[in-house]
Specification:
It is built from nine helices and 19 strands. The strands form five sheets. The chain has an eight-stranded antiparallel beta sheet, with helices on one face. The protein has a four-stranded antiparallel beta sheet with strand order 3-11-12-19. Strands 6-8-7 form a three-stranded antiparallel beta sheet, covered by helices on one side. The chain is α+β, with helices and mostly antiparallel strands. The longest helix has 22 residues, at about 55-75. Strand 14 and strand 15 form a beta hairpin. It binds adenosine monophosphate (AMP) and magnesium ion.
Length: about 350
Amino acid sequence: MIQRWGRWAGVVVMVSGLLVLMVRWYVAPEPPGVRVTTRLLMGTLVAISTWGGDEHQATRAVGLAFEEMARIEALMSRFRPQSAVSLLNGAKRGEERPIPEELALLLVKGVELGRLSGGAFDIGLAPLSDLWGFSREPPPVAPPVRESIASWLTEHASLNGLGIAIQSTPEFRVKLSNASVGLDLGGSAKGYAVDRAMEVLRREGVVNALINAGGDMLIMGSKGETPWHVGLRDPRDPSGVVAILDRVGPLALSTSGDYERFFWADGVRYHHILDPKTGYPARSGLISVSIQAMDSMTADALSTAVFVLGEQAGLELLQHFPGSEALLIRENGEHVKTPGFVGRWSKTP
Ligand code: AMP
Ligand code: MG
């Protein structure tokens, strides 16, 4: 089985021919009865699998679930000029702007996690993300000049907190404090979209489904008699699987790693998860963080936050989120997991 996964592990998704994304979770080759539909959304290949039920009903439900994810992308992507996020990012700093309630609720959770993580999770670091340009095409091949990172750090440090003020009455309004703040929801919006997509499937009568959106996976029900069977990719061996999970939902799993979007320069691996304290890709001693939680948005945001914080502070952060569990891979290749994490090792740690 692991060898069969190995073939899947080699899958590389090419978006517009340039952006290379490595798949983090593998779903085992399916038995009869599982329908899999894929679509490119939110910068990744999203696969929705359903099992059982009426085929027409499931096909319709999956179509609507993809539509829901596309709607959220149109609202929350900072790369869509007309998205609510882009309009806010383009607004004058210090000025309050109305925003849709749905976006405001995501921001409230993001700001709260920013506070709990001591600023390690920062939904306002878009200007820093732009300096690094991991979402650019062609992707970057060298780090930004030190001076531009230093001036971002100085301006960001002058803020009170994250520099994102949210007001809820009489309508949701947001104010971004200075030019070092701009919304980048890349660390949590995909998880949110996955939650919403699963909600659509449930509403449309689907009982058994698995959504795999790059690093974010959400499971509902089973494959009849059998649980869903998935593997976590070995970050340093594209043909390997670190952990195996046989699970019946509900369960959310998200992985953040330094191997998803990165480049090498002068022997250093520069990746897309940034430490707002240094302005550089996080070097916390971890190369992969998987989080298990009850909803995908929480798992998504926590995997990014724990990656930045590192093992000790990361596991302390999880104490604030009952039911959350972690599987961590250290720089030296050692694997650790909290007692409640659902997977079993596929090889000796
Ligand atoms: P993920 O793959 O879920 O860990 O999210 C990584 C994405 O989150 C990046 O591509 C950025 O868009 C964004 N991001 C990077 N660093 C941070 C951070 N420290 N806090 C919040 N979001 C971040
Ligand atoms: Mg994340």
